[in-house]
Amino acid sequence: MIGFTFGLNPASGPGLIFETLPVAFSQMPIGRLFSILFFFSLSCAAITTMIGFVESLISFLMDEWNISRRRAAIIVFSAIALLSMLSIFSYNTFSHFKVYGRDFNALTDVLVNNILLPLGGLLIVIFSAWFISRRTLLDQIKLGPIGFRLWLFAARFVAPIAIIIIAAFSLTE
């Protein structure tokens, strides 16, 4: 509602949080305090998420390539720095480089949100519904016999079709 009131584009994606919320906070009593608390909390959430992501990559490199933690961390943080620089430069220095009419950030957004996330969801639902043993599923999904059969039907047939349809529509936009 605030976005429409102040003429902000609701289709601007995740960046909308940095456009809409400051406007909303400025309209509130002691909004500056709430703004600081909110964006501090958002920063903490982003950092803790990144730590979990980075740690899994470092552990993977240590296990698969049999390298030290220090070397794995240097590789991971170097890759993050490189990709971050590509992201930063896509707003200025590399802004004229486009693939299918999209800059680096827009391209990675489409790749992740419209291809990788639906593909990951599809693979997870297929694996859980078709490859995990029925006994394990029954032990983990405590819905009773009728609820379990409904869940299994939905996971095997409804969810994959729904994910494919949603992914197809998101790619056609």
UniProtKB/TrEMBL annotation:
Keywords: Membrane, Transmembrane, Transmembrane helix, Transport
Top-rank taxon: Bacteria
Matching Pfam families: SNF
Gene Ontology terms: cellular component: membrane
Membrane-protein topology: Multi-pass membrane protein
Annotated localization: Membrane
Annotated InterPro entries: Na/ntran_symport (IPR000175), SNS_sf (IPR037272)
Keyword Secreted among record annotations: no
UniProt xrefs under SUPFAM superfamilies: SNF-like (SSF161070)
Parts of the chain that traverse the membrane: 36-60, 72-91, 111-132, 153-171
The name this protein goes by in its record: SNF family Na+-dependent transporter
Organism of origin: Microbulbifer rhizosphaerae
